[in-house]
Amino acid sequence: MATKRMNANFSDQVMSLVKTLRTEAPDCVASGVVDMSTGMLLSYETVDSHPPEVLDLLAGATLDLFQGRTVQMIEEVFKERRGISGDQHFFQEILVNSENLTHLFIRMNEQQDVVAVVVCRKSVNVGMLFAQARRAVQSHSL
After folding, report:
1. Where residue 32 falls among pLDDT bands split at 50, 70, 90?
2. Domain total in the chain
């Protein structure tokens, strides 16, 4: 995985994914890509300005959602009970609704420690959000 990140095209691919998500996800107000192995927000686009500390917290929150201690324990129990070995994660997509927004977090297929984030107005058609976001993620291999 590290060799892919060192590829000169990786940055361009990340920025392309962010732009695709931002333009094609319905009612999208922001999109980004988080690298959970480094805890960094690699790229983002938003219609509003946000304080830098909020953007920094997005990467940490994404890490907690997918790889927090309790989540890791749940995944280990599932693997043990199902006799599965390997580092594939069970939680691939997480949808979070806040008071005014819907946040969708999707792990990349090839790079399980890279997560695409899409933030939309709460009025979004969730089915369309999933369809468009999945299509964008599948068409951008990082």
Report:
1. very high
2. 1
